[in-house]
Design brief:
Shape: elongated
Strand order of the largest sheet: 6-11-10-9-8-7
Structural class: alpha+beta
Largest sheet: 6 strands, mixed
Helix content: 10-25%
Distance between the termini: 22 Å
Strand content: 15-25%
Radius of gyration: 21 Å
Number of strands: 11
Number of helices: 7
Amino acid sequence: MAGTDEDTVAAADDALYVLTAVLLTPAKFPSVLGDDYPEACAALGLPPLADGYGLVLGQDGDGARWTVVIDDVSLVAVAVASWDCGMEYDLSPDERTVVTALPGWPLAVAVAAPDVPAPHDPDPESAGLPPLTPPDTAVWGPAQRRLGADEIAFQWARWREQVDDADFPAPAGGSGPGDGAEQEGGADAEDSEAVPGARGAATGVPGHAGVRRVLAEARSYVDTPPPLGRVRSSFAPGDARTLRADGPGWSLVARTDDIAFVLLDEEPGEVLPVGRGPELPGLLDALDKMAVRPS
């Protein structure tokens, strides 16, 4: 949600017309920038401070794109929460909170400031640094895979209704989908365009090697904590939590009281559902206990 026209903050040698803002913290960061918080910070040339940052995106008086990094995280959190509720909020950070002003935008922004030239990169001489640009999501890759996982977490109910628990194969000697180990299943993909570039939920093959690898790497996180932000826990209805875990070439989205979905770099556009079985609940609970949570 964009800020108001009057929202301004000092950027470089001019005022910045604020368009939007995002958090860059261990518990909440633009996952398109990396698999974890330190990687996301590195993409912007920032040290991974424990308290994180707020990223304020806007245009200067000439229309140039700028990303102003501030250390007043709570101010940005309040602004984002207000905008999400459809409320206006005057995001005007104190100049003393500005850490740096970076040319360009690291994320795609669909709006523009009124009465200034169209968004464009700053003049190289005045910027001093190469401009930030959003990751290329035109083709399937790590950035698009993470965006897909974001969308599944946001639209969980929509994706979950595509999966019939009966699609998960029962193990030999078992009586149903809850009696075996984690099981890969399938779902109809007619309504799966929400994931950028996705062809839909995979038809899944029991014993999928990629899913086995993801679950093994996720289990390893419990014993050997990964970089900060690799595993995040957020609100979900009831007593459940929404879990998000990422690793080299994979993303996992799950509800602690339900199934999981896996996306892989090597499986362009595919979404692989993973049934609960007797092992997945324990894994999800263990990941939730060590996950970073919003403060």
